[in-house]
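Subgroup meeting minutes
Present: P.N., E.W., G.H.
Scribe: E.W.

1. P.N. recapped why we're keeping a running log of single-chain structure predictions: easier to compare across weeks, and new members can see raw inputs and outputs side by side.
2. G.H. added today's entry (505 aa).
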Amino acid sequence: MKQVIEINTDSMIPPAVGADLFSNRAAVAEMQRPSTAAEVSIIIQAYNRLEKTKRCVESVIKYTGSVDYELILLDNGSEDGTLEYFESIEYTKKTILHITQNLGASYPTSTVKLSDLGRFICFLPSDLIVTAHWLENLLICMKSDDRIGMVNPVCSNTSNLQCVELSYTTYAEMQKEAERFNRSDPKKWEDRLRLITLGTLYRKEAVGAIGWPIGDVGFFHDFGDDDVTFRIRRMGYRTVLAGDTWVCHDHKYQHGEGKDPVEFKKSIDIGRANFRDKYYGVDAWEDVNNFYIPYLSYFPAPKRNGLIRILGIDTRCGTPILDIKNWLCRAGIFDAELSAFTQDAKYWLDLKTICKGPVICDREEFLTDPFLRESFDYIVVDRPLNRYHEPQKIINDLFALCKKGGVIVCRLKNTFSFQSYLHQLGQRDVYDPEFAYHMPLEVVENALERKGKIEAIVSDPYRLAAGERQALAALLPAEIPGNQQEDLVNHMVCNEYLLIVEKNT
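Output recorded in log:
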């Protein structure tokens, strides 16, 4: 027997054809949004941990201000009174979904219809505590550009250089400090390749483009947020960290709070491997976490206004050039164009998502062919110079492409490190397996200084414990004076040097 299901669309208005992909997506999302829907749907999912859930919900109700929002409260089979608490909340625009048995973190969201949600969607973990102006600030950022697909606040207790720790001793002090911190400022908005999704605001059509429910269930927990960021960015949207908005993450992630340490590590390893499998070899950490944020204080202050052109060479997915773009924004320079050259095709797509200029995949000997001479204000080479086949040619090419007065940032692998020293002492299993020419720092300095001024040389050390440094010092000849021993150890524990050079005008 056939069953006819009628869906009444008489009151709906067909979407107008837009000028581009993004306006078409927005039109369809708006057509599906119920007239009674709030502007923002805040989804809070809880499984036990009632006290944290209470703090989360109460902070939302108190500090969300004038934003039109609804609460969608998902009880994922809690046994500690979470359902009863949800029912007691005095807020008119709320919907409660009660799951009788915990079937995993992804299941509850799958029971929610995307078409029923508001113009924007915010997922709040139950261990977040929001603060004054948090949602207003995220919306200001989101609405500044139709191409922004997700915005994430900074918070406590997180990784990925998203962590900001405010100073306070009580809950009331925390909220006062957060209110002082939360001042909308476009200079503090950072484009990022990946985000740890804590309090993330999403554009509805961006979520529709990647598919609902938002998470890939293959990840279960770890690396699911990396995956979401990658998918939204690869759909053409910007993924932004709002450095002007702080919330509290009431969870000690470093210690795997509430998790068995062995199982926690296993989950991390599996999630990371799953990510590499899905993205054809791209690693969510190694290929994305090559931040240049720690080095930006060594850069000379920007001297030009107008369009700034930035070229990244072998920067993997492109974090170094994004960091420079964000740094320029902090200085009030918002017009920057990124371009990239890579020798590994697996990075091409992610570079395209952040670059308005050309993205070229080719061999190193053809570096200068696709670009105009003296056209870039900043050039970053993330691969060490002595790991190229012709280091001097690379140096010549960098200066050929850089504008006069422009900045070149390059690396040098220290092949005279403790690994080489221990190998010479007979420890044959200690060595760097990656090829690099033996090029003393002084030789590279001389080559660069013929065409530019070295602004800074930054040592990037191996992460060694104090006892390991002492063991290295003990291997040095005893007749070497103490101050020279310290210099030698510092040289041996250096992994790479970062050289920042301004081209002669």
